[in-house]
Amino acid sequence: MPEITFLQAINQALHQEMKADDTVFILGQDIGVLGGAFQATAGLFDEFGRKRVIDTPMCEYAFSGLASGAALMGLRPIVEFQFADFISTGFDPIVQFAATHHYRQKNPLPIVFRAPWGGGSYAGPFHSQCPEAWFAHTAGLKVVIPSNPHDAKGLLISAIRDPNPVIFFEPKFLYRSQRGDVPSDSYTVDLGLADVALAGTDISIITYGAMVPEAIAAAKTLTKSSISCEVIDLRTISPLDRESILATAKKTGKVLILHEARKTAGIGAEIAAIISENAFEYLDAPIKRVTAPDTPVPYSPPLENAYRPNSDNVVHAAKELYYF
Amino acid sequence: MPEITFLQAINQALHQEMKADDTVFILGQDIGVLGGAFQATAGLFDEFGRKRVIDTPMCEYAFSGLASGAALMGLRPIVEFQFADFISTGFDPIVQFAATHHYRQKNPLPIVFRAPWGGGSYAGPFHSQCPEAWFAHTAGLKVVIPSNPHDAKGLLISAIRDPNPVIFFEPKFLYRSQRGDVPSDSYTVDLGLADVALAGTDISIITYGAMVPEAIAAAKTLTKSSISCEVIDLRTISPLDRESILATAKKTGKVLILHEARKTAGIGAEIAAIISENAFEYLDAPIKRVTAPDTPVPYSPPLENAYRPNSDNVVHAAKELYYF
Amino acid sequence: MFESDKTDHIKLLYWMMLTRAVDDRSVSLAKLGKIPGTIFSQKGHEAISVGAACALSEIDVIAPMHRDLGAYLVRGMTPGRIFSQAMARVTSPSQGRDVNTHGMGDIELGIIGYVSHLPQLMTVALGAAFSFQYRNEPRVALTFTGDGASSEGAFSESLNLAAVLKLPIVFILEDNQYAYSTPSKYQYAITDLVARATAFGLPGVTVAGNNVLDVQTASTEAIDRARRGDGPTLIKANTMRMEGHALHDSAKYVPTDLLNKWREKDPIVNYKSLLYEKELLDEQTEKSLIKQIDKEISAGVLWAEKSPFPDPATLTEGVYA
Amino acid sequence: MFESDKTDHIKLLYWMMLTRAVDDRSVSLAKLGKIPGTIFSQKGHEAISVGAACALSEIDVIAPMHRDLGAYLVRGMTPGRIFSQAMARVTSPSQGRDVNTHGMGDIELGIIGYVSHLPQLMTVALGAAFSFQYRNEPRVALTFTGDGASSEGAFSESLNLAAVLKLPIVFILEDNQYAYSTPSKYQYAITDLVARATAFGLPGVTVAGNNVLDVQTASTEAIDRARRGDGPTLIKANTMRMEGHALHDSAKYVPTDLLNKWREKDPIVNYKSLLYEKELLDEQTEKSLIKQIDKEISAGVLWAEKSPFPDPATLTEGVYA
Ligand SMILES: Cc1ncc(C[n+]2csc(CCOP(=O)(O)OP(=O)(O)O)c2C)c(N)n1
Ligand SMILES: Cc1ncc(C[n+]2csc(CCOP(=O)(O)OP(=O)(O)O)c2C)c(N)n1
Ligand SMILES: [Mg+2]
Ligand SMILES: [Mg+2]
Question: Which one of A47, C281, D241, D304 is CB 3.0 to 4.6 Å from D176, fit for a cystine?
Answer without folding.
Answer: D241
